[in-house]
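Hey all, quick one. A colleague (J.T.) asked me to put the magnesium ion job into the tracker so the inputs and the structure tokens live in one place instead of scattered across chat threads. No bug as far as I know, just bookkeeping. Sequence used:
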Amino acid sequence: MKIARVEAVPLRIPVNFSSIGIDHDEFASFTYVEVETDTGLIGHGLTSITQARPVAEAVNSVLAPAIIGLDALAHERVWHVMAWTATPWAQSGYASHAISAVDLALWDIKGQAFSQPVWRLIGGARDKVPVYATCGFSFLDDDQLADVAARVAGQGFKGLKMQVGRPGLDTRKNPPPLSEIIASDTRRIRRVREAVGPDVEIAIDSGCRLDLPSAASLCRQVEDQNIAFFEEPIVQNDVRLLAELRHKTPIPLTAGQNEGLAYRFRDMLLAGAVDVVQPNVIITGGITQCLRIAGMAASFNVPISNGGGAPFQNCHLQAGVQNGTAVEWQFNAVIACSAIYKDPPGHKDGWMVMPEIPGLGLTVDRAAVDRLVDAR
Ligand SMILES: [Mg+2]
């Protein structure tokens, strides 16, 4: 069964947050990928948290010509060809997103070819996974944040995640001093704790936007708030600085959702830089490379979890391997993906039940994909 067609489409999907009681509109950027075999099977993949059009171009003009004609079930062989085609001098960047989306499509095909859901093909460690909700967006004011946190906790989620450190070191946006941002974050975390009570887990995520002193300061000021984990606290996921921060705080640290290269996780594990690693199947080289990373983490007795959203794809990794844990129900990503998949999986009482449908278990609304093309 050979790869016959590879097609990537850049998407710009309008997202409205009315489902969590907020009147806010924005656009989400996703790249949708289809791979078709010479037997007519079609698999689909996805990537995001980057610009959609250069990723689509990388798939269509760089990866597709290199892999058409290869065995669609030989995921290690295809991954090797893609990596050496797009990143022969150890680049990462957009190439990692492009490779991830194609690799996901191949795993979707593999599941269909063997009539099994992907999570069972890769190990079937559990048939349901816990989900936590990311709803504490930086665009919410303090009152809205507390209101949304209480509303989302009321939907059955046992854990919530909120954005901190924004805009932080993101100097494109002329940020306020980091000390002001930390003071604001401290106040907002306390508001959320008041709103949801003691039994709901609260996690925080700075998206790599803080330096070591600021991240350490925030940790000190919210240590009494029972923070479940601090995700990507340090700029560039600097491994040495993460390890230093980990020695300064009892709050567990996590990182890795946007890393493209497996050795970055090896270095985090060797340095004892994080408590949990977070490879994301739509970004970190697809299922194929995330399995390598999960295996590395297992050998250090470290769990993996999902940061960076895309629960419909990442649930397969978290359910499939023994050291998998939670999936992130990232509201803007879920709302965006719900525009292109028919009847995507839901959650109940903080759990997602894994689908029995072969492959990724997602039905694409191709008319919606074509309607949402980013044609700017
Ligand atoms: Mg994150």
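Adding what we noticed when we looked at it: The chain has two domains: 3-115+366-371, 119-363. Residues 220 and 345 are 38 Å apart (CA to CA).
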